[in-house]
């Protein structure tokens, strides 16, 4: 028993050391490098806990009060989805049929009816359980009994489409509040073995490590939302807007930015003015200050 306790203690100590090294590495990314920092973090975590894919999701609150209570996702909508590796093709087809045309911002009657359709239920038990805890940091494994009824989940069409079809056998879900209207999620997946062999499910230690890592980088979460324009608006920046924003954060002149993206200077200048207005600033210095001001929101326990 003592030997087992010592081994567990050594594993925890090792996790703490490697996590500290990771945070130091992430701190070295520039203001414009939040997406690169995220990829570095996801690759590191994938190796540490033997995950086949990890998906980062940015969600924002678009409905409040009674509207949120009657909404399938409690008033939340996904705005950005970044997988470490490309999704399996069957999964891509499901996403294209539902999430892309209807979940990303369109509060249409069609969305409403499809979201509530009992046979398919695109929202699913996992989605509702994930967002029911909004505002609090949380870590769950797919089979945690205090999170949802896994046996009931397995009997749904949602499980067939979103788990069996892409070959997902287990998931760790980490939810991190970024503000009262912004939530950062990480879905960590382990897939079915191609040769038919049995794969282990995620352990508590692996889930704990994933949670500690994601909770320990609040500034990265904030910068990811800032860089996508989601702390200042309900729609993500366009690819062109992001490129111009990153150029500003890297200290390039507007002429240099225009040249780099093959755009007329006058067009780039209009984009810059629009970005300043969106972020509520009047200069490059005040824009940069938003990225360097540190995390202003401490996730609740």
Name a few traits of the molecule:
alpha+beta, globular, 5 strands, 301 residues, Beta-Lactamase, five-stranded antiparallel β-sheet, disordered C terminus, 2 domains, Arc Repressor Mutant, subunit A
Order of helices and strands: HHEHEHHHHEHHEEHHHHHH
Q: State Rg.
A: 21 Å
**What is the residue-averaged pLDDT?**
86
Individual helix count: 15
Main-sheet strand order equals 2-1-5-4-3
Instruction: Give me the CATH fold name of the largest domain.
Output: Beta-Lactamase
Model regions low in confidence, pLDDT < 50 over at least 5 residues: 295-301
Helix residue percentage: 40-55%
Write down the overall geometry: globular
Major sheet attributes: 5 strands, antiparallel
Using the coordinates above, name the CATH class of the largest domain: Alpha Beta
Question: Total domains, how many?
Answer: 2
The N- to C-terminal Cα distance equals 32 Å
What structural class results from the helix and strand content?
A: alpha+beta
What does the secondary structure layout of this molecule look like, with pairings?
Layout: H1 2-27, H2 34-48, E1 53-61, H3 65-69, E2 76-83, H4 89-97, H5 99-103, H6 109-116, H7 124-132, E3 138-141, H8 150-154, H9 157-164, E4 168-179, E5 182-191, H10 204-215, H11 218-227, H12 239-249, H13 254-261, H14 265-279, H15 284-292
Antiparallel strand pairs: 1-2, 1-5, 3-4, 4-5
Describe the structure.
The chain has 301 residues and is α+β, with helices and mostly antiparallel strands. It contains 15 helices and five strands. Strand 4 (168-179) and strand 5 form a beta hairpin. Helix 12 packs across helix 13 (254-261) and helix 13 packs across helix 14. The protein is globular and about 60 Å long. Residues 295-301 have low confidence and may be disordered.
